[in-house]
Design goal:
This protein is of the alpha/beta class and about 250 residues long. It has helices at about 5-25, 25-35, 50-55, 75-85, 105-115, 135-150, 160-170, 230-245; strands spanning about 35-40, 60-70, 70-75, 90-95, 125, 155-160, 180, 195-200, 210-215. The termini are far apart.
């Protein structure tokens, strides 16, 4: 091959590489490479400016503390749910499990606060790490059952890796999405959601906030509430009305 042709090819190759590099480093592509994140909040974050929070395009969803045990209700729950939704974020709710009261008592508290129509995301049962080794699994199973009956979907189980390995690693819970809290490194257990830090910062929230990532094999659609099924009787009636009017 003549020298002039070799030089021309090298020049074209170099230009192609530079063009590809410029494309990969463009703001739009870099932004797309930032993985979707979420946050979870409670009364400890105080008053939140949800408009500012939503300006961070990587933050797409938020879990809001609703209840704890039998009678505790987060005083900021309603404001957080409404504010986050109004700002365009997907919202879900979580209940902090207590080992001191029955599943029925806790479900009564959850039901009084968490309304199905206000939920974009599957509700979460939060079982903290200190429960490891002394969980009444019959009570946990009953509460999971009651939550599923109320909201029409299996709740997400939030816990530590230690509690997961001790109580939830068997096949019985294989159909539940798992939400793992691990601030030291990538989880070594199965998970859909990962709370990777409790000392995050974002505009609109004073102080620290927990940040969440979604496993690379999952997406937001996996934790969205199922769409309401159309009432078969109502659908049939509507069809009959349409047919009769023709």
């Amino acid at each position: 091959m003549p020298m002039a042709t070799k030089s021309s090819c090298r020049t074209k190759w170099l230009l192609a590489v530079l063009l590809l590099g410029a494309t990969l480093l463009s703001p739009a592509v870099l932004q797309a490479q930032v993985r979707t994140r979420g946050i979870d909040v409670s009364k400890y974050q105080g008053n939140i400016n949800w408009t500012k929070v939503a300006k961070d395009s990587t933050i797409r969803f938020v879990y809001v503390k609703a209840t704890e045990g039998t009678s505790i209700k987060d005083p900021y729950y309603s404001a957080n749910i409404k504010g986050a939704r109004k700002a365009g974020l997907l919202v879900g709710s979580y209940h902090l499990y207590s080992s001191k009261t029955t599943a029925y008592q806790q479900m009564g508290n959850i039901r009084s606060v968490v309304k199905k129509k206000e939920q974009d995301l599957v509700p979460v049962l939060d079982i903290e790490g200190h429960h490891s080794g002394r969980l009444n699994m019959e009570r946990v199973d009953k509460l999971l059952e009651l939550m599923e009956k109320e909201y029409g979907v299996k709740p997400i189980i939030y816990t530590s890796e230690r509690v997961y390995k001790t109580h939830f690693a068997n096949k019985k819970y294989s159909k539940y999405h798992i939400f793992i809290a691990n601030y030291r490194g990538y989880p070594k257990t199965r998970f859909t959601l990962w709370q990777y830090t409790e000392t995050g910062h974002c505009s609109g929230i004073k102080g620290y906030v927990d940040f969440i990532r979604i496993h690379r094999n999952h997406s937001l659609s996996d934790i969205k509430m199922p769409k309401p099924k159309k009432n078969a009787t109502a659908a049939a009636a509507a069809k009959n009305d349409t047919t009769a009017s023709k």
